[in-house]
Design brief:
46% of the residues lie in helices and 16% in strands. It is α/β, with parallel strands linked by helices. The termini are far apart. The relative contact order is 0.19.
Amino acid sequence: MWTLARWCFVILAAIAFSVRSLAQSFEHSYALVIGIDNYQSPRWPKLHYAVKDAQAIASYLHTQNYTEIITLYDNRATKHAIISAMEDKLAPRLTTHDRV
């Protein structure tokens, strides 16, 4: 009889295999990672782990051979900077064989 833990392991293994297979079909992989702990608006509470979590995601993507990882943390993650990263840095490079 299969336990829940065994089923979870099988499902996660299948997902990991699928992601690796899928990643091999892309020429380039790009990421825009954003983490904001300190919002400028007083109506949003201070967060404690958003930047740390974003840094961990960026680090993980680096291990997955992403071509370029753009990071924007806290006060660098402005609306202008996010749009600029997408329109000026990512969009001109993308082909139909890439992923973001």
